[in-house]
Design a protein that fits this description.
The protein has about 140 residues and is an all-alpha fold. Helix content is about 90%, strand content about 0%.
């Protein structure tokens, strides 16, 4: 063989080898592309699941907030009704009047006579009022 033919044969062989490398690279890239697409599909599915979970949590939070609002309104109405019932209760009025008498300097006997309270009740109101004065 002459040097020109060897050179041509070497060039042809290098082209075949280069073509084989390129074909292998293309095949490898196709496999890699397929894996990336599969991973992308898994991530997209997971993202959709997380978005659905977040939406459900938000809906639940709104529901809890609405429920809490209604419970607070109900509690407020109950508190107002209790306050009204206390104000209309003769026993509450007697104790309220007794506290005013104690603050005005009345004695236990005066509180018992005016409010119709037992001695122990009048003394208790006196002690509570003294405690309030000492605390201030």
């Amino acid at each position: 063989m002459n040097p020109g033919m060897i050179m041509t044969a070497a060039l042809a062989l290098s082209q075949v080898l280069l073509l084989a490398v390129v074909a292998g690279s293309i095949r490898s890239m196709r496999g890699l592309k397929r894996r990336v697409e599969q991973q992308e599909q898994r991530h997209a599915a997971r993202l959709r699941t997380l978005q659905d979970d977040i939406a459900a949590l938000c809906d639940g939070a709104v529901g809890v907030g609405d429920h809490l609002y209604h419970v607070e309104r109900y509690l407020h109405r109950l508190s107002e009704r209790q306050d009204q019932a206390d104000m209309n209760d003769p026993a509450y009025q007697s104790f309220d009047h007794a506290v005013r008498l104690v603050k005005g300097g009345a004695t236990v006997e005066q509180i018992m006579a005016e409010c119709g309270l037992a001695r122990s009740e009048a003394e208790l109101i006196m002690m509570l009022n003294r405690t309030e004065k000492a605390a201030c």
